[in-house]
Amino acid sequence: MKAIAYKKFGTADVLETIEQPKPFIQPDQVLVRVKAFSINPLDWKIRKGEMTLMSGSKFPKHTGTDFAGIVEDLGASVSGFQSGDEVFGVVKNLMKEGASAEYVAVPASLVWKKPSGISFAEAASIPVVGTAAIIALQKMGTINSQTRILVNGATGGFGMFLLQLLKQHVGHVTAVTSAKGAEHAKKWGANTVIDYTKENVLAKQTTYDIVIDLSGKMGYKNARQIMRSKALFLNPTPKPVEMLTSFFRNFFTGKKHVVILSSPSNKYTDLLLHALKNGLQVQVSKVFPFAQFKEAYQYAERGGYIGKVVVETN
Ligand SMILES: NC(=O)c1ccc[n+]([C@@H]2O[C@H](COP(=O)([O-])OP(=O)(O)OC[C@H]3O[C@@H](n4cnc5c(N)ncnc54)[C@H](OP(=O)(O)O)[C@@H]3O)[C@@H](O)[C@H]2O)c1
Q1: What local confidence, expressed as pLDDT, does residue 241 receive?
Q2: In this structure, is residue 139 part of a structural domain?
């Protein structure tokens, strides 16, 4: 089978297709013929060597976490699935495995039946960012009509889910996005939209109870100036040292810094599937064919798209 891999850290240019045997399934695994996989910023952070503490430096490395496809084979202890089922899921070790391949073997606990009303591309867009959005919402705690929430970087994959989940709650949501994303941010439930290319949210007088930075460019230190005295800063892009320091610092400061780590599981996927039934939309900005995988990664990395970028296999 074909898989995308790289043998040194670098730009999308280091990506190449390699031929390797179809994965062998363990008793608890399903073999899925991948129809689509989505691109996450984590893919290029690992590929650029920014996360070697977790990813290690052994090559070749594979890439990609979320996928959707068709079950081709089942391990002996797997129940609840059969060959031909349309599914979506994640690879188990996102630092060392890759969903960007023609086949993946994954534990059945990390695969879910794809709702018939959504495409493979849409399904492959859900697990990592959808789960992260649910976790973010849960960390926000009680939201009342007075709660002011700032979503900085609101119209990528994570923001798309978070804005729509927040729409089910009272509270005032300000979305920071480029002009291109304003319309979607409003459609997904933002009460106010700030164009970051025209206005600096840090320079405005408005303060918030919750700030979540999905751009990775604000940081807790900067955010403090727009946080109310007992406000919460949610950080899905922590530096390794922040994971430790934020925990201890939170004992001594009213302005809390909380790290978010997505870990897709049945619990979160059930909530996402329920939200999909109730109208949650998955926006796929662009779908690339497998042969154009490099262009897909370059396009995603440039930014300026709404929702997700997906690659389809044959
Ligand atoms: N910890 C976890 O488990 C976890 C899980 C999922 C994602 N993440 C991280 O969360 C972040 C968001 O994920 P994503 O998939 O939504 O990424 P994404 O699709 O790349 O979205 C990033 C968003 O930030 C916006 N942006 C860029 N520069 C900005 C600026 N200066 N000010 C405000 N907004 C700006 C982008 O808008 P334009 O493209 O229009 O510039 C885009 O809407 C990523 O860093 C990702 O790695 C972490």
Answers
A1: 86
A2: yes
Q: Are residues 212 and 138 in the same domain?
A: yes
Q: 237 C-alpha vs ligand 1 centroid, how far in Å?
A: 9
Q: Is the CB of 202 under 6 A from ligand 1?
A: no
pLDDT digits (tens, 9 = 90+) for 139-160: 999 999 999 999 999 999 999 9
DSSP 154-194: TTBHHHHHHHHHHTTS-SEEEEEE-GGGHHHHHHTT-SEEE
- Structural domain including 172 reads 129-259
Helix (H, G, I), strand (E, B) or coil at 131: helix
Q: Which atom from ligand 1 is nearest to the alpha carbon of 180?
A: 40
Site of tokens 């650029």:
48
Residue having the nearest C-alpha atom to atom 7 of ligand 1: 129
Burial class (CB in 10 A: 0-12, 13-18, 19+), 207: middle
Mutational test site, ligand 1, from 39, 196, 214, 257, max ligand atoms within 8 Å of CB: 214
Q: Mark whether 197 and 140 lie in a shared domain.
A: yes
Segments of the chain with pLDDT less than 70: none
How many A from CA of 227 to the centre of ligand 1? 20
pTM, whole model, 2 decimals? 0.98
What pLDDT, on the 0 to 100 scale, is given for residue 21?
96
Residue of 39, 215, 259 best suited for mutating to test ligand 1, as the one with most atoms within 8 Å of CB: 215
Q: Which ligand 1 atom sits closest to the C-alpha of 42?
A: 47
Beta strands at 172-177 and 148-152: parallel, antiparallel or unpaired:
parallel
Count of domains forming the chain: 2
Q: Report which residue type is found at 92.
A: K
Question: Is the CB of 69 inside a 6 Å radius of any atom of ligand 1?
Answer: no
pLDDT at 187: 97
CATH number of domain containing 160: 3.40.50.720
Please indicate, yes or no, if residue 162 is contained in any of the structural domains.
yes
CATH of the domain at 47: 3.90.180.10
pLDDT value for 94: 80
